[in-house]
Amino acid sequence: IMRFAEPLTPERVRYSVPEEMTKGSLVGNIVQDLGLDVKRLKSGRARIFTEDSREYIGLNVDKGTLVVKERIDREELCAQVSPCSLHFQIILENPIELHRIDVEILDINDHAPVFVRKEISFQISELAVPGAKFSLDNAQDSDGLNSLQTYKLNPTDHFVLKTLSHTDGTKYVEMVLQTPLDREKQEEYNLILTAFDGGSPQKSGTLKINIIVLDANDNAPVFSQSVYTALVAENASMGSLVLKVSATDADQGTNKQVSYSFSQSSKGISNIFNVDPSYGDILLTGLLDFEKNKKYELNMVATDIGGLTDTAKVMVEITDVNDNAPVINVISFSNPLPENSAPETVIAMLNVKDLDSGKNGQVRCLINPSLPFRIRQSSSNFYSLITDQILDREKMSEYNITITAIDEGSPSFSTNKTLTLKISDVNDNAPVFQRQSYTAYVMENNSPGVSVLSVKAHDKDSGNNARISYFLEDILVNGVSASTFISVNAESGEILAVRSFDYELTVVVEDNGQPSRSATVNVNVAVADSFPECRCWSVCSGFKH
């Protein structure tokens, strides 16, 4: 087993592992390769984000390693696409980081070549000329680098094998008549076609070929073109004519009648295309999807009544239409957000993608410009929602932020995603008294427990930051604390006489924030000697932090 890490940039790592590794197998040491440490993975709540719903690779946060999470079958995952790779991102928070990871899945030789049919038959005229071609079934091998490599035909007394290639590099074969047949000498031939793959040890599959020699018919059909091309929009309706192929036969009577069909080497087209066997019209019988398959290669066979054939290719290219709306995925969302957050603080990270191609797949992200936020593109398909202004919870405590993703197609498609962001309070407001000063009159030698007056204050903050308490400023009057004569209800602000007095006092209000804020108010108390003459004093108002 080989695995390696190749740093592409400081934020991107590539690994290579073989398919079919057991669950829990080590893929790579992500801490070492990204220059991080395990503490950072844990504090940043590191996790894997993949644009596909299935996760084949898992993250062991305790060890800082990537491991196989699910069985990986390269053929199921990528079919014949090479190289076959998994792409995902590792996301960390506080601060937010994004690291791209590529894992290439290497092929192992776990499949042998297989023919769909175990046996095929041909009826060939004895007048078939050397060079006549007969299309043979293709073997299928799901492996990648270890897939189908060569074919061998045995015996080769009358027929030889010709190996050809599709435009995607896959091989197919034709059987070519090398020497004339003589029905009177031999009426039937039995051949074996063997397909070999490129693995070590090498695997193979076989196909039995039965040939019956017929009399007469000495001309094979000939297509008007060796290669046909057609363009079809992916939203073309079923039943639409894709193309008409045509072949002619120089024979007379029933021997010149030609029928059309797809060869066995035309893979995966039976549910999408159909050909009229009499007229050669190729019709659309299934739904096309440019995002899944951009082109098809159809291998046509024209066969006359004597079994002689000719082959041609039909190249069908699918053109894209704008049939997919953008998709918005919220990767990370910091909610609630403190009101003292600095401008350009990242609130959320978004992944936006559109399955269409070209301009149809190009996307713009927008939000209401009147909001104190903006969208910033951090990389391809990734966007950040950030603050654009100083926030004030006392003016606005909650925002509904609608993110609109619009593609560049015509007509365009758009998708909306609404995030509800709550603004959390910080203790940035001191309590404020309802009045700048208060005045009260009490009789000298008043009764204990008499209510002198009530003071009121309020705080614009919320929660604990808005909870306020009242108390006396501890001052000395003639060497005696004012609290021995006056008390203040900490919750209501009511001032009560503890016992008879004729002294001065000061009232302070304080909130419950961290750090706390407070305020004082000017309170004038007049003590009357049984008639209007009185003595007065005052306390200066102010604030402290």
UniProtKB/TrEMBL annotation:
The keyword Calcium applies. It is found in: Cell membrane. Signal peptide: none annotated. Pfam families: Cadherin, Cadherin_2. SUPFAM superfamilies: Cadherin-like. This is Cadherin domain-containing protein. GO terms for molecular function: calcium ion binding. GO terms for biological process: anatomical structure morphogenesis; homophilic cell adhesion via plasma membrane adhesion molecules. Potential calcium-dependent cell-adhesion protein. May be involved in the establishment and maintenance of specific neuronal connections in the brain. Residues 9-115, 116-223, 224-328, 329-433, 434-529 form the Cadherin domain. InterPro entries: Cadherin-like_dom, Cadherin-like_sf, Cadherin_CS, Cadherin_N, Protocadherin/Cadherin-CA. Keywords: Calcium, Cell adhesion, Cell membrane, Glycoprotein, Membrane, Repeat, Signal, Transmembrane, Transmembrane helix. It is a single-pass type I membrane protein. GO terms for cellular component: plasma membrane. It comes from Sinocyclocheilus rhinocerous.
